[in-house]
Q: What sequence folds into this?
């Protein structure tokens, strides 16, 4: 019986300490008296979201959604390298605050630091397609991996134009990023 008492007492102390140190995420019960004594209106006030990390949008245009799902309404989008404050995480989605708005974004499009812009590769029917250009620091970002490349066309451009492009062709058959360029 004594062990049970001390176990419950310890849990209660830890719960109280958690609320003192980190607050609580439970809604608060509040009341307002708009008429000066004649009527009290009660309301549940949701806890304010906490934002604990600074991240950056890594996509060229990142949808800020009202709900953590692809079906959530998109009131605005964020440009690449927009600084966001990140909070709650839920099934691959992150609650963020950016540019005075709060919403949900997919966690796969957030980075810990600003990202270099992607290289635009000329389309097949545009002038310059297939021409091997000289590599410059501005045209080749730091080494990328296939998981960071969006299209087969982009992977082929890196293979042809960047000093590290050969690393994208793991088996040496001339086809970069096999999963993308099948």
A:
């Amino acid at each position: 019986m004594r062990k049970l008492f001390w176990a419950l007492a310890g849990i209660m102390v830890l719960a109280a300490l958690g609320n003192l140190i980190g607050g609580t995420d439970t809604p608060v019960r509040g009341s307002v008296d708009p008429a000066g004594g004649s009527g009290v209106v009660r309301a549940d006030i949701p806890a304010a979201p906490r934002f604990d990390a600074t991240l950056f949008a890594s996509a060229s245009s990142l949808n800020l959604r009202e709900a953590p799902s692809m079906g959530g309404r998109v009131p605005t989008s964020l440009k690449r390298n927009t600084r966001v404050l990140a909070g709650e995480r839920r099934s691959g989605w992150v609650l963020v605050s950016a540019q005075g708005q709060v919403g949900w974004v997919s966690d796969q499009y957030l980075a810990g630091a600003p990202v270099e812009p992607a290289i635009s590769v000329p389309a097949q029917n545009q002038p310059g397609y297939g021409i091997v250009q000289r590599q410059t620091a501005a045209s080749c970002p730091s080494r990328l991996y296939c998981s960071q490349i969006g299209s087969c066309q982009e992977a082929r451009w890196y293979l042809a134009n960047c000093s590290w492009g050969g690393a994208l062709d793991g088996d040496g058959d001339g086809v970069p990023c096999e999963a993308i360029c099948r």
User: Anything to note?
Assistant: Confidence is low (pLDDT under 50) at residues 20-24, 131-138. The two ends are 67 Å apart (CA to CA).
